[in-house]
Structures are given as C-alpha cells and as structure tokens.
User: Which sequence fits this backbone?
C-alpha cells in the first residue's frame, strides 16, 4: 500500500490480522486479569492485586483430585492414541490399502461429528453393556477423538521423508524390525512427541464427552463446570482457568515446535 | 501405473502380481494389519454406538426401564411438539450464522498469511491456532464474564460513566450464543482456507496481472474461486460440530438461546427419556446431513458455472 509515494510499514491485510488476533486473545485474557483481582465480583474497576484465589485453589482437595484424574486419563489416552494413530498413518503412507480414501474418511469422522452424539451413543452402549462409568469410559471417549488427530499429525510427518530410505535399509539386509528402530522411529520421533502432547491437551481440556461418560470421579473440566453455579467460587475458578491456559499454551507451542523439527527448511526461521 | 512400475523397478522391488485380483498382496496385508487395531476400535466405539442409538430411538422408556421394540412414538413426539422443530431450526440457523461469520472473519487473516507473509509463516499460523487448543469451556466462560449483568462490558461502561444501569440485552440471547461460538471456533476456519490459498499456483496470478487485471479483479476472478474448496471445508467444519453444542447455549444463551443439544442433554439427564433423546439426535443428524449435502451441491454448481 502506498500513500504519497511512501510505502507504509504495514498492509491492510496485515493490520486486519493483528486486529483478528486481538479478537482471538483478548476475551480469554480476562480470566487471568480478574484472577489477580481482590474482589468476589468479576467487574471493573479493578481492586488490589491478590494471590488469595490461587491459594484458595491450591487448598481444595476436590480440585486436586480432579487434576489427578485428568492427568491420569490424559497420559493413558495420549499413549494409546499415538500408538494407534502412528500405526494407521504408517499403513496409509507406506502400503497400498484398498478403499484407502473411505477408510481414512471413516477414521476422521470423530473430528467432525457433533461430540454430543458421540457422547450419548457411547453412554447408551456402556449402560446397555452394564459397564460402570469411570475414568476408563471417559478415556475410551477421548481415544476416539484423539486417534484421528494423531493419525493426521503422523501422516504429515511420515510423508515428509523418503520411502526409498526404508527400502534401501531393507535391501541392505536390515530386518523390518531393525529398520523401524534405527530409521523410521528416530525420523518420526518429533511427530510422536508432538502427537503425545496434542492428544494430552485434547483429553485434558475435553468437556462434552467427559460430561456424559463420567461417573463419580470428575475430570478437571467437569469440576470447573460444577463450580460455575456458585458465584463465590468464581474467582478461584478463574485462577484455576488461568493455570490451565498457561499450561495448554506451553504444551501446544512445544508440540508444534517439535513437529516442525527438521521439516520445511525454507521456513524454519533462518531469517 | 507405468510410473508405479518404473519406480518399483528403480527401487529393486517387484510390483504386486496382478494375476489374481482376489488374493491380497503381501504389502496390502501388512498395511491392513497395521490399520486393523484402529479400525476395530472405531467400529466398536463409533459405528456400533451410532447404530445402537438409531435402534434405541425406536424403543420406549417408562420410568427407569427401557422397553425394546419398534415404535415410531418418539418420532411422533418430536413432530407433534412445535417447540422441538423450532429449536432444531434455530440451531441450524445459529450454526449457519456462526460458520458464515467465522469464514468471513478468518478469510482475510488466512489470505494475509498465505500471500503477504514471507518469513515465519508457521509462527503466524501457530499464533492463530493457539487459542483453539485452550479449554473450550474456559473460552465460552470468558464470554459469560464479558457479557454478564455485572460483567466486563457493563461494569466497564458504568465505571467510565457512559451508562448508569447495566445493559441487559448483552447476555441470554441468540446473538450472545452466535458471537461466543464464532469466537470459540475461529481458528478452525483459518487452516482450511489457508491451505487452499497456499496451493494456488502463483503464476496464475502473475498471468492475470500481466493481462492487465487489477489486483481487485484478479482476486475476484482467480483467487476467490480457487479458494472455494477451502471456504466450503471451513464452513462445514464449523457448522457441523456447533449444531450440537449445549455448553455455549447453557452458559450465555438463557431461555431464548436454547439449542437442540440442550434438548438432547435434558432427555439424557433430568428429562430421563433416552429413546426420545435418541430420536431427537437422529433427526438432528439427518437434518445436518441434508444441509451439508445442500452446501456441497451448491458449491458444485458454482464450480461448474465458473469453469
């Protein structure tokens, strides 16, 4: 864009994107802002700075239990989903699979189906099969939505390196197992770490499935939902929410950075 | 095929024998073995449950006991009560609006990253998709704080003296639901649009410029039509999941913002009529499918007209 022959340091699309980013981030930033505010009501003007809501939060055993539950589910879900996702990705990228488009479509359905439908369908099946609702049922629900994510992450990683490398290794006499350990695994490791982290975040933050599939052991989002009814609990929910936001952002940035390791040399920031 | 054969010769591998179409090659079998755990899992946890849900919608429930059978009672119940139809229709409208808004808002940002950013594209993409990875519940809750009676906007405006009484039209209506959802799903729309823009062959744009088209007409005649697949994908990726949402309507929608997901949730919770809840879900899914087919057909027609 030029005005008076001078090139502006920003473009129209660029300034729009900055405003768009502000629209994305500012609403969420009110959570941490009010979590340090020394008032029970979430309203302006701001009062004194305080850490009391964080103290109150860290003293709640119900919260710590929920946190423990979420971490347990998240760790197991991310490991199982990543194993399944990696196997599926390898099948699609390295072997000729009949009907591979339809099969890929089937596996990615959980990404587009309304989660409430998935939640109630699983609830009905579990209750008809007399499976009690526990952390395991929540975990099953989360694996269903995490496997497609993991598969997509791993496919983009596996497509990135040459199939010829694996064939060369086998032609040189390595067994398929050793080829996997000495070639495929190290090359796809960044994808695996990224998939583990992303699946953990999805499971950790997931509410809708957990809402239908939880018994009397709540995960963190279920706990937060139960607290939203009590106005006096809101400030400590804000404190908890701020902590979750910080952890999620940290984990995702780390995951993305890992996923791009060694790929796209033109874009990896040699500028 | 010729290329396949050539590459398999080049790498010293034998092409799969084509003589017997019914016996799978070793490669295919190995691939299917790798795929089978995932397929079995998804058949058991996705296909089977949805089939069971369809079956359940023909059952009846008295008190706590489910009675198997085949009755259209639940479907009758849905169509007899006007309120159900209205809520479903409103959910579809709301989600269509949300999807439309997110696409409109996301397009310029995706355009900027695809065409204007030369270095650090990934940084921009990560920045935009980051909020999407944070807790959905918290993003929705943030809007309750912003729009609430004693919320950020009201208390902010009062404390700078612009208004005396809190504005009540901010929360508990459809608009609040649409804005909140549009914000919560924004990042989902950027990626598909970005991918389709990134794929556009830049020499087409140069050709268009060389032929004397202004940047504006180049955009309208080349860039926009070529990015339609991404726009359609973005629209549907936001539309489909939001129809069933019940968190946002519950937190910011009030009585006027109720959506079909709330009705389903009620039947599986307090209302305790699972078969009716199942029937409502099935009808909603079929309606969503019809809308999706409609959108795809429309895009197909537009593409044909442009070609």
Assistant:
């Amino acid at each position: 864009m030029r005005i008076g022959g001078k090139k502006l340091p920003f473009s129209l699309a660029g300034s729009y994107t900055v405003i768009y980013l502000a629209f994305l981030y500012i609403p969420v930033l009110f959570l941490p802002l009010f979590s340090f505010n020394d008032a029970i009501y979430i309203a302006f003007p701001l009062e004194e700075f305080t850490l009391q809501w964080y103290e109150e939060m860290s003293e709640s055993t119900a919260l710590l239990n929920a946190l423990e539950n979420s971490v347990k589910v998240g760790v197991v879900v991310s490991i199982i989903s990543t194993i399944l996702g990696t196997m599926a990705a390898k099948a699609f990228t390295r072997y000729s699979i009949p009907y591979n488009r339809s099969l890929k479509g089937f596996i990615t359905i959980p990404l587009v189906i309304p989660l409430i439908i998935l939640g109630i369908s699983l609830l009905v099946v579990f209750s008809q099969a007399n499976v009690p609702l526990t952390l395991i049922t929540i975990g099953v629900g989360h694996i269903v939505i995490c496997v497609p994510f993991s598969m997509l992450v791993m496919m983009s990683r596996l497509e990135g390196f040459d199939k010829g490398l694996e064939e060369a290794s086998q032609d040189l006499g390595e067994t398929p197992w050793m080829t996997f350990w000495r070639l495929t695994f190290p090359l796809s490791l960044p994808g695996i770490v990224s998939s583990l982290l992303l699946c953990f975040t999805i499971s950790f933050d997931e509410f809708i499935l957990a809402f239908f599939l939880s018994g009397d052991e709540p995960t963190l989002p279920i706990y937060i939902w139960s607290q939203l009814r009590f106005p006096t609990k809101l400030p400590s929910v804000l404190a908890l929410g701020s902590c979750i936001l910080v952890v999620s952002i940290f984990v995702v940035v780390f995951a993305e950075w890992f996923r791009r390791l060694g790929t796209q040399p033109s874009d990896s920031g040699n500028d | 095929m010729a290329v396949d054969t050539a590459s398999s010769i080049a790498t010293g591998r034998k092409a799969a024998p084509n003589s017997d179409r019914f016996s799978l090659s070793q490669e295919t079998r190995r691939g299917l073995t790798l795929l089978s755990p995932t397929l079995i899992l998804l058949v058991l946890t996705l296909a089977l449950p949805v089939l069971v849900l369809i079956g359940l919608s023909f059952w009846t429930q008295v008190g706590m006991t489910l009675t198997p059978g085949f009755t259209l009672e639940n479907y009758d119940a849905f169509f007899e009560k006007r309120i159900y139809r209205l809520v479903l229709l409103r959910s579809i409208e709301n989600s269509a609006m949300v999807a439309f808004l997110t696409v409109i808002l996301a397009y310029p940002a995706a355009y900027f990253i695809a065409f204007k950013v030369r270095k650090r594209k990934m940084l921009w993409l990560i920045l935009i998709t980051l909020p999407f990875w944070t807790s959905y519940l918290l993003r929705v809750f943030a809007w309750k704080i912003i729009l609430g009676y004693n919320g950020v906007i009201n208390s902010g405006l009062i404390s700078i003296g612009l208004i005396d009484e809190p504005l009540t039209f901010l929360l508990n209506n459809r608009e609040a639901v649409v804005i909140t959802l549009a914000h919560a799903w924004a990042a989902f729309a950027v990626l598909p649009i970005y991918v389709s823009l990134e794929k556009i062959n830049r020499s087409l744009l140069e050709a268009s410029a060389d032929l004397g088209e202004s940047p504006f007409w180049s955009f309208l005649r080349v860039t926009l039509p070529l990015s339609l697949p991404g726009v359609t994908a973005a629209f549907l990726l936001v539309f489909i999941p939001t129809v069933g949402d019940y968190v946002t309507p519950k937190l910011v929608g009030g009585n006027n913002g109720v959506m079909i997901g709330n009705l389903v949730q009620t039947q599986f919770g307090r209302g305790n009529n699972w078969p009716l809840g199942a029937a409502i879900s099935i009808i909603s899914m079929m309606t969503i499918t019809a809308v999706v087919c409609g959108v795809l057909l429309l895009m197909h027609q537009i593409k044909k007209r442009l070609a």
User: Anything to note?
Assistant: The CA atoms of residues 74 and 80 of chain B lie 10 Å apart. The longest helix of chain B spans residues 82-116. Chain B touches chain A through 92 residues (CB under 8 Å).
